[in-house]
UniProtKB/TrEMBL annotation:
Intracellular or extracellular location(s): Endoplasmic reticulum; Membrane
Species: Capitella teleta
GO biological process: endoplasmic reticulum unfolded protein response
Pathway(s) of this molecule: Protein modification; protein glycosylation
PROSITE patterns in alphabetical order: TPR
EC number per UniProt: 2.4.1.109
Name of this protein: dolichyl-phosphate-mannose--protein mannosyltransferase
Segments crossing the lipid bilayer: 20-39, 116-137, 143-165, 172-191, 268-289, 309-329, 349-368, 380-401, 407-427, 434-451
One cellular component (GO) term of this entry: membrane
Root EC class: transferase
Keyword set, alphabetical order: Endoplasmic reticulum, Membrane, Repeat, TPR repeat, Transferase, Transmembrane, Transmembrane helix
Pfam families: TMTC_DUF1736, TPR_16, TPR_8
Length: 733
């Protein structure tokens, strides 16, 4: 017996779509889904991709074991730390590592192509899932086909597909659907067929656990399974239940199920799985919950419960609007993009009231009528829409965002079901003449969504396009202007970057990160006083902002405020003990204040924390060379070359030190190694020439000098040395 094997209802017969075989329909859905977002196949890493991949040691570092990934959050930090956002998605990180392994590095194309294919698979898999939810006997009903097509081309999915971090949503959804499918099959098995019952129920729970390990939203599949079991399998009559409560003093009505024991066993399994997932997750998080700042989700910090409820409902309204008319899409909705509602007289409450009225009417229509096929489909559509959205609703706990389009990936399936149900209802009530126009309407809807998905995908091809589109949609979003400033700063357009950083600070006067970045540009331009002022403001706003403290130390050192600079560096290290760049800059300060031993200790700490910190190694070598401490220098260079054996800068500086100590043969060896690694460096050849000159190997010296002038004809010292050499050779003839 297959799940939902009732006779197909003719309710979708008027939909203007062909009735294709399951294989053909799945292929069409897959192709349409892939085509909608294929323009992102060669896109760059954008926005959150940098933190999740490029700066995530769990993805890029070969020395990070798989077991360590299961102790880290999505961004590579210790999941038990109080600073972690507690986003635990180890299986998603493993897919990133597999991508990097197969592509021999962090090649964006490999990651994007994988995401596009995954979206195609999820869309095709929705075809049988929609058939189950629509209570169709086969997996090729017109309603399921149209719903799958609408899901495939939904523009709100762009962030999940075009952004590599959307892999979490795609894989979570894939396991979500497989878990639900196996549960629906298990619902057709009675306890008397326990082996077959377990054969499908246990995989369902395993896929549910995997879904959660891809993204937290996966736990909601347990709720959808329960809703499907109650509404479609057991055909629970909520309206009748409410009447029973009133008439028979809270006596629970009997469920129309082939076996109440199997129903109870299935729900006991769902309950135990949910408890296991939640308790395990709490333990993994170090028995603590994430702590978010007001800037992450200001609506959740409104003190009045009533006003907070108004804010939440307004956010739900915007989420619904993004599904209905996905024109207003933005990569980030924080920092003023959606201003907080602080009064009941705010005109936006009108939109909230309209939304609540419409939604209440829809729920009433689903629950107030006798539970026929249409009502059950409506109830399951609402379940598919609402249950996966619950983790993002702020209902159970505060979330770290205002609106996130990625979290609508699964709920959008419920919306497409509602849309198809509405189209079926309208088509069934049109006369024959009007029905002639229904194909135009349906195909126009698909084409409009397809076109919007392609358009939005083009905006996700690069960060500049993405950030500019965000400024058009959310001009009050300080973070959008900050990101525009950052990308222009990275490309050397500092004047425009400064303007954008200033605009971000005007929109959000406590934007400490924008102050820090603006101060860095001003520091490089010599505007040290304003840079110091900005960094003092940033550290006052966020005392634990270690990067701002370090940059403040750099500025104060440039202003000759050495005592203040040292305090700033030490404050940075107080808040972030493993901070190699700060130790490096502290060492530079000690060198400037004639404290060589303290400088060496600071640089040593930098190299211990980051063994490939070239600048710290280089400074240690130069200081030991200038101090004539050759035994210590030999030890430092030996250790440095263990971590950086192919770094010509280290070979070059060590060769210079050896030459000064008249250790000519070893000096020659390291000069030649440096030149082998960087043959186009004129200074390397020039200093090798000086070594040969002092060594008495005049022909070799002449060759090196001439090679230097070949690379840099204006090298003044080499011209002088060559002239001296030629004069010496003449005098010896």
């Amino acid at each position: 017996m297959q799940p939902c094997s009732r006779k197909p209802s003719p309710w979708d017969a008027h939909l203007p779509l062909p009735l294709l075989s399951a294989h053909v329909a799945s292929s069409v859905v897959f192709i349409v889904a892939v085509t909608s977002f294929v323009v992102t196949h060669d896109a760059d890493f954008v926005f959150d991709d940098s933190e999740a991949l490029l700066n995530n040691k769990d993805v890029s570092a070969e020395d990070i074991s798989i077991s360590e990934i299961f102790r880290h959050d999505f961004w590579g930090n210790d999941i038990a730390s109080n600073l972690s956002h507690k986003s635990y998605r180890p299986l998603t990180i493993l897919t990133f590592r597999l991508n990097a392994f197969l592509a021999s590095g962090l090649n964006p194309r490999s990651f994007h192509v994988t995401n596009i294919i995954l979206h195609g698979i999820v869309s095709a898999l929705f075809l049988p899932i929609f058939s189950i939810l629509f209570s169709s006997a086969t997996h090729n009903s017109r309603a399921a086909f149209l719903a799958a097509l609408l899901f495939a081309v939904c523009p709100v999915h762009t962030e999940s597909v075009a952004g590599v971090v959307g892999r979490a949503d795609l894989m979570c959804s894939l396991c979500f659907l497989l878990s639900f499918y196996f549960y629906s099959v298990a619902c057709s098995q009675g306890v008397s067929m326990y082996s077959r019952f377990s054969l499908h129920l246990l995989p369902s729970m395993m896929f549910a656990i995997c879904s959660v390990l891809f993204k937290e939203q996966g736990i909601t599949v347990l709720g959808l399974c329960s809703a499907y079991d109650v509404i479609s399998v057991s055909r629970f009559d909520l309206l009748g239940f409410l009447r029973t409560l009133l008439i028979y003093s809270f006596q629970l009505p009997a469920l129309r199920s082939s076996s109440s024991s199997s129903f109870l066993l299935r729900h006991l399994t769902l309950l135990l799985t949910g408890v296991f997932i939640l308790s395990s997750r709490f333990i993994v998080m170090g028995s603590s919950v994430p702590e978010f700042q007001k800037v992450d989700n200001p609506h959740s910090f409104v003190e009045s419960r009533f006003l907070r409820a108004l804010n939440y409902t307004y956010l739900y309204c915007i989420n619904a609007w993004l599904l209905i008319l996905p024109h207003w899409l933005c990569f980030d909705w924080s920092m003023g993009c959606v201003p907080v509602i602080n009064s009941i007289t705010d005109p936006r409450n009108t939109a909230t009231l309209v939304f609540l009225s419409g939604f209440t009417a829809l729920v009433w229509r689903a629950l107030s009528h006798p539970p026929r096929h249409h009502e059950r489909c409506l109830q399951l559509s609402l379940a598919m829409l609402l249950i996966p959205f619950l983790p993002a609703s702020n209902f159970f706990f505060r979330v770290g965002f205002v609106i996130a389009e990625r979290v609508l990936y699964l709920p959008s399936a419920g919306f497409t079901m509602l849309l198809v149900i509405g189209l079926c209802w309208l088509c069934s009530r049109f006369n024959r003449t009007v029905l002639l126009f229904s194909p135009i309407c349906v195909y126009a809807l698909l084409l409009l969504n397809f076109g919007r998905s392609v358009q939005r995908s083009l905006e996700w091809r690069s960060e500049r396009l993405l950030f500019d589109s965000g400024a058009n949609v959310c001009p009050l979003n300080a973070k959008v202007h900050y990101n525009i400033g950052k990308i222009h700063s990275d490309h050397g357009n500092n004047d425009y970057a400064i303007a954008k950083y200033r605009q971000a600070i005007r929109l959000h006067p406590e934007y400490d990160q924008a102050m820090n970045n603006l101060a860095n540009i001003l520091k490089d331009q010599g505007e040290l006083v304003e840079a110091e002022s900005l960094l003092l403001r940033a550290t006052a706003i966020r005392e634990s902002f270690s990067a701002a403290w370090m940059n403040l130390g750099i500025v104060q050192a440039a202003l000759k405020k050495t005592a203040a600079a040292e305090r700033s560096y030490k404050t940075a290290l107080l808040h972030r003990r493993r901070y190699p760049d700060c130790f490096y800059n502290l060492g530079n300060l000690y060198l400037e204040t004639n404290q060589p031993n303290e400088a060496l200790a600071a640089w040593r700490n930098a190299t211990l924390l980051r063994p490939k910190h070239l600048s710290a190694w280089g400074n240690m070598i130069l200081l030991l060379d200038n101090s004539g401490r050759m035994p210590e220098l030999d030890i430092v260079v030996e250790e440095a070359l263990k971590h950086l054996p192919d770094e010509p800068y280290i070979h070059y500086n060590y060769a210079n030190a050896l030459g000064k100590a008249s250790r000519f043969e070893l000096s020659e060896k390291h000069f030649l190694l440096a030149i082998q690694l960087n043959p186009l460096s004129a200074s390397y050849h020039a200093n090798l020439g000086v070594l040969y000159h002092r060594w008495g190997k005049l022909r070799n010296a002449e060759t090196s000098y001439r090679k230097t002038l070949e690379l840099d004809p204006q090298h003044k010292q080499t011209k002088e040395h060559l002239a001296m050499l030629m004069q010496k050779q003449k005098s010896t003839r």
